[in-house]
Design a protein that fits this description.
This protein has 20 helices and 9 strands. By secondary structure, it is an alpha+beta fold. It starts with a helix and ends with a helix.
Length: 499
């Protein structure tokens, strides 16, 4: 059954369309039917629905049958908008997060209905062609939310500090996993089960499952996780409880996400965990010293990460929050890449771009990411070490100055690769890349370290013009099509100008 809210929106859209078709201004229609301009404006925006006698007056002024005016059917040109208003999409869109109301959206639609209708049809078509799932849409929206805030959230930072002080964790690095368990059990009445998930082979990639049971909360924890990952899951649960985040998904992994609220709360709980493990002031002091060195020292970076007992993912994600706020380094990207050992397949499974999209970004069109880029090169190196070395490192780190061929932009990239527990057949790398600007050069002294290689890279092999690339994994098909198109356009321009 269509909601009252959507009835108002459709009525307002139809009314504005009919008024404009009759070349009537708001003032003229208001005078004709005896309704104030302000009230008529609210009707058209979908904020008000008029009483029967006012609808009769509107129908008479517009020379339109009453039944036609109150019908929920829109014209053929507005069919996509009708589908949009009758779908659940509007209720799923977190418009309020970006300061937009549904009424604002409808007003945009009503100002140029045919063009916007065509635009909506295009978006729907793109989503179908590229098999966009709800989870992908929600994650993309969440990334936009993070980017709007430079991935820094003062309220969660403050909450994590209050929590640490309240429970005697302030200044403790790393926080013992036993203490996190004690707090969940003692303060929030949790039962922690580390055996059940192991009984289901199909659930071995799931890190944790939350089950709300009375009188206790129950948490199923994957026993194949390492200590670092278990600690993070426990800290995230503490975040859910301390921040009073009610809407949530039940698993750490994105098996199914039903709303933006779930995606946002999952992020907030994760952010809380990172802020709890890595206090912003202590973290900033350490990186102030690290950035002051004229040589890049990967081992020092790994030791910092190990001292906090956090994963490379959590460590670099924390840096993506601290660097913009406390160092003014707000042009950066974060990317996590997964790689099945022994394969030639690399997938970007998580990314963040501040303040806008940078050169390396995920694609859903199965193009091959540049193998020269450090985030992939380090995975190939780790894979080789794991095949040949008996003493395998728990993590390796590399740095690179990546000079992008197409844009000419240069990034200082730092990447850490390690086995992706609880799926030991998979490795993952996380990379943070800073755009090299004058500001970056002034604040990061090792930016020009001669031991850090400068490498020409591209986004994907299909778009790359390097002819002698030994790491190429696919021919430059997209580039060739673009070159052919450019030649056609140049020849046409030559012929036209010659006449």
């Amino acid at each position: 059954m269509i909601s009252e809210h959507k009835v108002r929106l459709i009525f307002g859209l139809k009314l504005k369309q009919l008024r404009q078709a009759k070349n009537l201004s708001l003032k003229e229609l208001a005078e004709n039917c005896g309704i104030s301009i302000s009230y008529l404006n609210e009707i058209e925006k979908g904020k008000k629905y008029p009483k029967t006698e006012k609808i009769v007056a509107l129908a008479k002024s517009l020379n339109e049958p009453y039944d036609e005016l109150v019908s929920l059917k829109l014209t053929k040109n507005l069919t996509p908008i009708n589908d949009l208003l009758n779908s659940e999409l509007l209720s799923e869109l977190p418009l309020d997060v970006f300061g937009i109301s549904v009424e604002d959206l409808v007003e945009i639609i009503s100002n140029a209905p045919v063009k916007v209708s065509a635009f909506i049809s295009t978006l729907i078509s793109i989503a179908k062609n590229y098999e966009m799932r709800v989870e992908q849409f929600l994650l993309a929206t969440l990334r936009s939310y993070q980017e709007l805030h430079d991935n820094y959230f003062e309220d969660i930072e403050t909450a994590a500090e209050h929590f640490a002080t309240e429970f005697g964790l302030a200044g403790t690095y790393p926080i013992a996993i036993e203490r996190l368990q004690e707090l969940l059990i003692g303060q929030y009445n949790y039962q922690i089960d580390e055996t059940t998930l192991g009984n289901y082979p199909e659930l071995q990639s799931i890190r944790s499952v939350y089950m709300h049971q009375k009188p206790a909360h129950k948490m199923l924890l994957n026993n194949n996780l390492n200590v670092t990952q278990k600690a993070f899951q426990l800290a995230k649960e503490l975040g859910y409880q301390y921040l009073a985040l009610n809407g949530r998904n039940h698993t750490h992994s994105w098996v199914r996400v039903e709303s933006f609220e779930q995606a946002l709360n999952n992020f907030k709980a994760s952010y809380f965990a990172g802020a709890l493990f890595m206090n912003r002031l202590n973290f900033t002091e350490q990186f102030t010293c690290f950035f002051a060195s004229e040589t890049f020292d990967g081992e020092t970076l790994l030791n910092m990460m190990r001292a906090y007992n956090v994963s490379s993912d959590t460590f670099f994600h924390r840096l993506s929050s601290i660097a913009p706020k406390f160092f003014g380094l707000n042009e950066l990207f974060f990317a996590r890449i997964s790689h099945q050992k022994g394969s030639n397949v690399f997938d970007i499974t998580k990314e963040l771009h501040l303040p806008n999209l940078h050169n390396l970004h995920s694609n859903e069109i199965k193009e091959h990411y540049c193998r020269r880029w450090v985030g992939i090169a380090i995975l190939s190196e780790l894979d080789q070490q794991q095949q040949t070395d008996k003493l395998q490192p728990d993590a390796i780190v590399k740095a690179q100055r990546a000079l992008y061929l197409n844009s000419g932009k240069e990034y200082f990239c730092i990447s850490i690769a390690r086995t992706a527990y609880p799926t030991p057949h998979t490795n993952s790398s996380v990379t943070i890349g800073f755009l090299i600007t004058k500001d970056f050069m002034n604040k990061v002294q090792f930016w020009n370290d001669m031991n850090v290689p400068v490498v020409l890279v591209n986004t994907t092999c299909e778009r790359c013009k390097l002819n002698d690339c030994s790491q190429r994994s696919a021919p430059p098909t997209v580039l060739k099509k673009q070159v052919a198109q450019n030649r056609i356009e140049a020849k046409l321009k030559e012929i036209i100008l010659a006449k």
